[in-house]
Specification:
four-stranded antiparallel β-sheet; eight-stranded mixed β-sheet; Fumarylacetoacetate hydrolase, domain 2; 15% helix; alpha+beta; metal-binding; 221 residues; globular
C-alpha cells in the first residue's frame, strides 16, 4: 500500500509527500537510556520520502541487518512554506496536522557507524524506516506543549510520552529547522522520541496513538 498524506476521516491531503525532518535526543530520558549526552542544541537529520510507509495493514522491517528499534514520535505535517526565521505565529499557521509515527532505526548498524565516526543515514533512511499514521487537523490541539504519544506492543505499554517533556518544544523546533533549510507543504517533522525504545520483532502487534485523539492498530510483518 503506497503512502499518501490523509486525515483521520479518510480525506486525502493534496500536499505531495516531501522530506521528513527528524530531531535526535529531544527527550532527556531517551538520551540517557542510550548512554548519549543530553544535547544543548537540536540534532537534526533528514529521512527521504522513499522511506515513508503507512501504518495501515502492517509494515515490514529488515531481518538481515541486526536489531530494528522502534521510536514512537509526534509527527507534524507542514502545509505552508516556511523559510529563514519564521515567527511562532507563522509556524503555527503552517501546521496542517498531527499524527503518531514510528522512526525506525537499525540500531546495530547505527552503533557500528557511530563508533567509526561515520555518518549513519543508512541506519535511519532505509525503505520503510518511517511509519506514518493519518493526521488529525492542525487545530486539534490548542496547547502544543501538551500532546501525548503512546506505543503499546503485544499489550504492554512501551512508550508513554508528552510534548511537555521535549527539550526543544514544537514551535521553536520548527523555527530552528526553517532557519537552516526551507520547509514545503507535504514535509513532515518528527519531533523526537520519549524514553522506552527497544527492538521490534516480526509478528509484534502494535497500538500507536495520540491518546484521546487518534489510535491505530498495526502489525510487524
Amino acid at each position: 500500500m503506497a503512502y499518501q498524506h490523509q486525515y483521520l476521516d479518510g480525506t486525502k491531503i493534496h500536499f505531495p509527500l516531501g522530506k521528513v525532518v527528524c530531531i535526535g535526543r529531544n527527550y532527556a530520558e531517551h538520551a540517557k537510556e542510550l548512554n548519549n549526552p543530553v544535547p544543548t542544541e537540536p540534532l537534526l537529520f533528514i529521512k527521504p520520502a522513499s522511506c515513508v510507509v503507512p501504518v495501515a495493514e502492517g509494515f515490514a522491517i529488515p531481518t538481515d541487518q541486526g536489531s530494528v528499534h522502534y521510536e514512537a514520535e509526534i509527527a507534524v505535517l507542514i502545509g505552508k512554506p516556511l523559510s529563514k526565521k519564521p515567527s511562532a505565529e507563522e509556524v503555527r499557521d503552517a501546521i496542517s496536522g498531527f499524527a503518531p509515527s514510528l522512526d525506525l532505526t537499525l540500531r546495530d548498524v547505527q552503533s557500528r557507524l557511530k563508533e567509526k565516526g561515520y555518518p549513519w543515514e543508512i541506519a535511519k533512511s532505509f525503505d520503510g524506516a518511517c511509519v506514518l499514521a493519518p493526521f488529525v487537523p492542525g487545530d486539534a490541539f490548542e496547547d502544543l506543549a501538551d500532546i501525548p504519544v503512546r506505543l503499546t506492543i503485544n499489550g504492554e505499554v512501551r512508550q508513554d510520552g508528552n510534548s511537555r517533556d521535549m527539550l526543544n518544544p514544537i514551535l521553536p523546533l520548527i523555527q530552528t529547522i526553517a532557519g537552516h533549510f526551507s520547509l514545503q507543504p507535504g514535509d513532515v517533522i518528527l519531533t523526537g522520541t520519549p524514553v522506552g525504545v527497544g527492538p521490534l520483532n516480526v509478528g509484534d502487534d502494535l497500538v500507536l496513538e495520540l491518546p484521546d485523539v487518534s489510535r491505530f492498530e498495526t502489525r510487524v510483518l
